[in-house]
Every structure is written in structure tokens, then in C-alpha cells.
Amino acid sequence: MSPVQQSRQLKELADAILARKPPGSPLAFVHCSVEVDPVQLEKVIRQSSFGSLLLCRGASLSAPQSDYYPDLNLFASTQFLCAVELSAWGREYDKYRVDPKGPSVPPYRIKDYPGQKDWARQVDIRLWYSNGTEEACQVITLFGASDYRGLPQLSRDVIAPAYAETGYEGHNQKCPARTSARQVSEFLGIATNLFLGRSLGSPGAPELG
73, 125 in Cβ contact below 8 A? Predict the structure, then answer.
């Protein structure tokens, strides 16, 4: 599929997940628990084309130690895997583009599209770990937007609730040098199967419904 088709497929999945928000919720995101064996899911992800985004088995889930970020004594091991979560985020914003008929250097001429909106969507697969005291999750994210010409982009983050404070946005982030069409397709296939409660099976990209 083309980058545009894969972006639309990401939006379709994200919108289906976002439809599960409670009525009247003002939030731009929703988290859904998934009934699946987390060890099986981790194996499927590691065997996928984007499996290298996961931390190595046994790697620490703690942030570099400081007064703000103590050691959690928690590791990316199947021993600690406890749950799976699927999340989505989305927003719309006014559409505008750089006018191709305008200057080729700043200041550019901006072309407005009154009444039209651009969109951005994100879907996360979250692997949760617990040692009975502390929790943390590895988050594999696919992000795309209508005003971005390339493929949706994959990334990894680690989030620990124990570190929650003003300004904390996760740690140990990683992005591939280049996200491929195969990686996007496999992520969408796995995430769609999780959302629909289907067997993980082959990580192709099934249709919703």
C-alpha cells in the first residue's frame, strides 16, 4: 500500500479505538485493556520486522538513576510481563499548506483551506511489567498525520508511573532510522487483531469489522 493508504488505515484503526471513549469524555486519547497472553504478544513482536524496537530481554526498565528517578528493580523479562494495553490518540486542526507558487525561501506564502481540517492519529501497543511493587511499560507507537507525506512513523518509549511528575514524558526512547512499509503493515496487523480480539497469527493488516 502507498503511504497515504497506510496513513488512512492507521486513522481507521485509531478512530475505532477512540470510539470506545466514555460518552462526553473531553480526552483526546483512550486506553483499552486487551485479553491476550502478554508473553505470546512479546514473542510475536520480537519476530516482526519492527521487533528490534523492544528492549533486549533482561534490560532495565528504570530511567538513569537520579534523585527523581530511583531504580525500580524491574526488567524487560517475561518473568515480569503482566498485561497488554492498546491505546489511541487523535486530534484535528486547521488545514494550511505552503503555497507552491509562492517564494521558495522564508518567509513562505501560506495557503489556507477554510472549513477543512488536517488530522493526526497515534496507536500504541503497551506491554506492562510488574515486580509486585513497581510497574512500567514498553510502548510501541505508530504515528501518522494527513499533512505528513511519508509513511507513518514507529517509535519506542518506556513509561513508569512511579516517575510521574510535571515534565516527565517517558524515557529510553528509540526511533528506527527509517520506518518501512512492511513495518507499518505488520504493526497495523498486530494492533488490529488485538483490537478485534482475533488470534495474533500472521501479522498482515486485516480489515476492521
Answer: no
